[in-house]
Amino acid sequence: MRHRAWIVPLALVALLAAAHFAYWRYLVNGLQDGFAAFVSARRAAGWTVRASGLEDGGWPLSATLRVRGLTLEGGDPDLPGGLAWGTQMLDLRVDLLSPALLHLAAGGAQHLRLGALPDIAYTAREMTATMPLSADGLPGAAHATLRDLTAAPAAGAPRGPVTMGLLQADATMDWAAPRDRPAISAQIAAEAIGLPPGMEWPLGNRISSASVEAAIGGPLPSPGPLARTAAAWRDGGGVLRIHRMALGWGPLGLSGSGTLMLDPGLQPAGSMQLRAVGFAAALDALSAGKAVAPGAATAAKAVLSLLAAPPEPGAPPVADVPLAIQDGVLSLRQLPVARVPPIAWPVGPRRAAAGG
């Protein structure tokens, strides 16, 4: 009888273990099916998708699917020249206690090419993203973290690589947002950005920090060639509202907010209200580096000095800077400061009309 007393607890433990394993297997199968559906959808849209191997794991606390040698190529004609991305390893994970949250982690050597731009090879100590799973496949939110990035053209970097100590981004998406509501709201912050040392940077080749909190007004247009998509977004009342931005670069410290949109020629237009610290030294450096004409730099310093509040003893002056972009010209209180390089929108070939 004593021996029989152990049968029920052992049977319960065995049953729970079997149920736990079945649940883990169910989640792994879900990851496999979801990845297979993603690959099928991309290939149906004309993309090339390759993977050298799939491995499941994570038991007992999570379900994981490791995709080795993943490459994605496609997107033409929406983006002339298309997009290509590859990674040695991509891990997909859901925790058994929170199966509705998908975790992604890319590792090893990676590369990215956009359109006709050079192929960029990069590595990072951490490159992760988290997003809730949804029935329609469109996430309503996402969080991404990148640490210790090193990136350079894959064909070689004679001028040195770009580095970044930390990048964090959070976004919420409302894909069906009407005109008066944000479709995408995002917060992005980066630290310790190192620019290629072989190039001339008037403010130095290190950006200590950069951040932005912004919202893109809806409705979002359907995917298509970039010029057509941009025009549809503009015609639908598209606007980029920068609630807050900050930049620390060399002697210059900037913070502020503003609104940007696209004009009839699909060029940026709008206004910003900035607060600038170290503007005199920054303008001198920009003038010496021929990024700003000497006369414009002198005039801008004079105007900013008039706008600056009396500084605290020993502190640098701080100026409130009203900026405007119109017709390709950046102006400070109606004083032209610099010409804004025009955006050359790639135009893809026209697609045949449905049923035509």
What does this structure look like?
With 356 residues, the protein is an alpha+beta fold. It has a domain at 1-117. The chain contains 5 helices and 17 strands. The protein has a 17-stranded antiparallel beta sheet that branches. Strand 15 and strand 16 form a beta hairpin. The relative contact order is 0.07.
What string, H for helix and E for strand, traces the elements in order?
Answer: HHEEEEEEEEEEHEEEHHEEEE
Q: Could you tell me the radius of gyration in angstroms?
A: 26 Å
Low-confidence stretches: 349-356
Instruction: Assign the structural class, choosing from mainly alpha, mainly beta, alpha/beta, alpha+beta, or little secondary structure.
Output: alpha+beta
Q: How many β strands by DSSP?
A: 17
**Could you tell me the mean pLDDT?**
88
Number of helices: 5
| Straight-line distance between termini | 82 Å
- Main sheet characteristics: 17 strands, antiparallel
The percent range for strand residues is: over 45%
Task: Describe the global form.
Answer: elongated
What percent of residues adopt helix (DSSP H or I)? 10-25%
List the helices and strands and how they pair.
Layout: H1 2-5, H2 7-44, E1 48-50, E2 53-57, E3 62-74, E4 83-95, E5 98-114, E6 120-132, E7 141-153, E8 162-173, E9 182-194, E10 206-217, H3 226-235, E11 240-249, E12 252-262, E13 268-277, H4 279-288, H5 294-307, E14 308-309, E15 318-326, E16 329-332, E17 335-339
Antiparallel strand pairs: 1-3, 2-3, 3-4, 4-5, 5-6, 6-7, 7-8, 8-9, 9-10, 10-11, 11-12, 12-13, 13-15, 14-15, 15-16, 16-17
Helix pairs in contact: 4-5
